[in-house]
Every structure is written in C-alpha cells, then in structure tokens.
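Worked problem 6 (solution included).
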Amino acid sequence: MSAARQRELVEQAYRAYGHSVLRRACQILGDEQEARDVMQEVFVALLDRPLRFEGRSELGSYLYAATTHKSLNRLRNRRNRDRLREEQAAAFEPSLDPTQPDVAAALRQVLAVLPENEARAAVHHYLDGMSHGEIAEQLGCARRTVGDLLERMRARLALAGRREAGGGS
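Solution. The predicted structure is:
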C-alpha cells in the first residue's frame, strides 16, 4: 500500500475514532493534555507501523486496546518518575536541615529572592515537612512540578552557598 493511501486511511480512522481514543485516554489518565498526547501517539503508531494492526480485529477494538496500553504505560512512567524524584530528594535532604543556623540563614536568604511558587514549595517541604504529594495539593499542581520547584530552589541554595564560601563571586 502506498504511503499516501496509508495516510488517507489513518486520517479516516482519526475522524471516525479520534473522539473515542481521546475519551478513553482521558478516562484512564484524568488529564486532557496527556490524553491528547496519547491520542497522537496511537495514530502516529498506526501510521508508522500499520502492520501491528494487520486487521486481526475491528479497527475500533484495536485502537481501544492500543489507547489503554499507552495510557497505562504513561501512568506507570509517571508513578516511577515521581518515586525516583522522591528518592532523590530524600537522599539530598539531610544536607538541608533548617534547624542548623547556617542552613536556616541561607534558606531565608534564598526564600527572599525566590519566585513565590518556589518559595511556597520550599517552606512547605523544609519547614512544614510535607511530602511532594501534599505540597502539590496545597499549590494545586502536579507532584512532578513540586519536584521541579524544589530542584530549582536547591540549585539556588547551592549557588548561594558557593558564593558565600567563595567571597561573593
């Protein structure tokens, strides 16, 4: 089958089943943007690797199964990514003990210049002892966003520590 004909068939499948694929992905992921990404992946895979379908089932059934598979993979990847961030943060935490006067002073100095969302995440994490999940609820964002905010704050804190140790360069 020619590439043009293959593209035409995938476009027809997209028009016929795109809404069902999107609805299924949203149902599993709970996030429309991620669901749209999955929908795109499903149809790109159909275009790139048409032999995977091979007509062994109805196209709708195949797309339903492919969407379910890709969505569940995304959930697992998200969970693993969040777990790894938590582990990395836990391994890093002992060096940022806010009860130590020098750490508390550096933390206050950095908090004063941080963007508000980073400062709030840092306060909830270091002073309130909240987990990334609890902070995400407080800030109304994803757990991975909390990890990113804390990582940026740690980088600023490390830079402030190097400046202080090096005489303010």
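Discussion: The mean pLDDT is 81.
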